[in-house]
């Protein structure tokens, strides 16, 4: 692994670790967690099963952070350049879209309006 890849991996770890830590904090939270920046999470009384709601949101964030790290190594199989960039971009964008869809599903399942 050359210096560029090592620097990229270190930056990626710095970016992925907070996502994993957010997931762990959400799993441990006693109050309903939020997903969107600036949007208040639902009130505790609105959520039918707070521990399950938080656990599923937390696991979602942990998997997203781990997915970023895995995409680095999968991208490395394609070599430097475009192949690696496509794999990592697909994880970031695709993962974010899946997270939004899953969050909306969890809101419909656990949050009474």
- Runs in which pLDDT lies below 50 for 5 or more consecutive residues are none
Task: Using the CA coordinates, give the radius of gyration.
Answer: 16 Å
Decide which structural class fits the backbone: mainly alpha
Average pLDDT works out at 90
Helical content (DSSP H or I, runs of 4+): over 70%
Put simply, the count of helices is: 3
Broad shape:
elongated
Return the string of H and E elements. Answer: HHH
Give the SSE layout:
Blueprint: H1 3-28, H2 50-77, H3 82-110
Explained architecture:
- The chain has 113 residues and is mainly alpha-helical.
- The protein has one domain (3-110).
- Helices cover 73% and strands 0% of the residues.
- It is built from three helices and no strands.
- It has helices at residues 3-28, 50-77, 82-110.
- Helix 1 (3-28) runs antiparallel to helix 2 (50-77).
- It starts with a helix and ends with a helix.
- The model has no long low-confidence stretch (mean pLDDT 90).
Provide tags for this entry.
elongated, mainly alpha, 113 residues, single chain, 3 helices
Please provide a brief summary of the model.
The chain is mainly alpha-helical. The protein is built from three helices and no strands. The mean pLDDT is 90.
């Amino acid at each position: 692994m050359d210096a560029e890849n090592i620097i990229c991996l270190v930056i990626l770890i710095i970016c992925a670790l907070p996502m994993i830590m957010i997931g762990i904090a959400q799993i441990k939270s006693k109050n309903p967690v939020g997903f969107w920046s600036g949007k208040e999470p639902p009130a505790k009384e609105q959520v039918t099963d707070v521990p399950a709601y938080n656990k599923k949101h937390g696991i979602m964030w942990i998997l997203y952070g781990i997915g970023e790290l895995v995409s680095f190594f999968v991208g490395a199989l394609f070599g430097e350049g475009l192949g690696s960039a496509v794999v990592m971009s697909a994880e970031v964008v695709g993962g974010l879209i899946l997270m939004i869809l899953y969050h909306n599903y969890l809101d419909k399942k656990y949050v009474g309006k």
